[in-house]
Amino acid sequence: MKKTIYLFFLLCFSLTLFASEDSRTIVVDRNGTGHFRNIQQAIDSVRAFDPKGEITIFVKKGVYKEKLILHSYLTNVKLVGEDRDKTIINYDDHANINKMGTFRTYSFLLSGNDITVENLTIENSAAPMGQAVALFVEGDRVIFRNCRFLGNQDTIYAGRENMRQYFENCYIEGTTDFIFGPSTCWFENCVIYCKSNSYITAASTPENIKYGYIFNNCKIEVAPEVKNMYLGRPWRAYAMTLFMNCYLPKGIKAEGWHNWSNAENEKTARYMEYNNTGEGASTSGRVNWVKILNRQQAAEYTVENVFKGCDGWNPVTKK
C-alpha cells in the first residue's frame, strides 16, 4: 500500500514537472513573482527556431530599463504587456553618445520573423538632441497591436527592405523623420503625434519594391505649437508613402510633402493621398508631384494586397 501511494505521488510530481517544462508562457515581473525579473532574460531563455510553435512572454507592469535584442534566430514569439501605459521598455541612448550613430541607439532591436508585440510601451527617453531610435524592427511578418512608441527624432526605424510589419491601434510620437526606413509597413487606426515642426515619415523604399508605408484610418495629431508639419520627405529617391482615410489636422503644411532639398526626388518619390479629412487634408495647395488617388486606384491598397507576397501573409487574420 505504501509503495502504491509513493508511486502515485511520484507520478503526480512527474506530470507537474512535465507540464511546467512544456509551458508556452514565460512571465516577467521586475518584483520577482515571475520566471524572470527582466525581459532580456526571458527572451534569451527561448529556444532558437523552437519547433513547438508560438511562445508567449507576458510582462507585468513596470518600467524595464533595458536595451533589448530579439535575435533573428528567434521566431514565433509573442511579447505581451499587462498594461500598455504601465508596461514600459525604456532606454536613453542617442547618436551623440561616443559617436554611436543612429542605428545603435535603439531601445528594442527586433530581428526575428513571425513576432507579435502587444499592449506595451517602447520608449527612447533621450532628450531631443539628435537621432534616438525607440524601435528598430527588421524582422518579417511582425505585428504590433495596441502599443505606444515614444521618442523624438527617428522613433521607429523599419530597417530592412522586403520585410513586412503591421501596426494596429498604436500610438506613435516624435519630432523629425520619426517613422523611417525601407520596410513595407501598414499602419491601421493609429494615432501619430507630431511634437515639433518637421517631417512625419522618411521612407527609403527601394525602387523595385512596390509598397512602402500605408497609413489607413489613422489620426494625425500635433502639439499646440506645431504649425508646419510635412507628411514626409524621401530618405531615398523612390520612397513610397500613402495616407488614406486619415484625419489630417491644421498644422499640416499646405504643400504636404518635401523633396529633401533635391528636385530630382520629385521625379521618383511615390507619394499619394486618398479620402483624408480635417483642416490639413485639402489637396489644393499640395506639391504637383504627389498623386491624389481616385476610388478605383485606392482599391488596390488593402492589407491583403500589400502583404501577401509569396506566402499569403495576412496579419488581420492572425490574432
UniProtKB/TrEMBL annotation:
GO aspect biological process, one term: pectin catabolic process
Residues annotated as the enzyme's active site: 177
Reaction equation(s) it catalyzes: [(1->4)-alpha-D-galacturonosyl methyl ester](n) + n H2O = [(1->4)-alpha-D-galacturonosyl](n) + n methanol + n H(+)
Residue span(s) of domain Pectinesterase catalytic: 26-309
InterPro entries the record matches: Pectin_lyas_fold, Pectin_lyase_fold/virulence, Pectinesterase_Asp_AS, Pectinesterase_cat, Pectinesterase_Tyr_AS
Known EC number: 3.1.1.11
Domain of life per record: Bacteria
Keywords, comma-separated and alphabetical: Aspartyl esterase, Hydrolase, Signal
GO molecular function terms listed in the Swiss-Prot or TrEMBL record: pectinesterase activity
Any single Gene Ontology cellular-component annotation: cell outer membrane
Signal peptide per UniProt: 1-19
Pathway annotation: Glycan metabolism; pectin degradation; 2-dehydro-3-deoxy-D-gluconate from pectin: step 1/5
Family: Belongs to the pectinesterase family.
Name of the protein this chain belongs to: Pectinesterase
Organism encoding this protein: Dysgonomonas capnocytophagoides
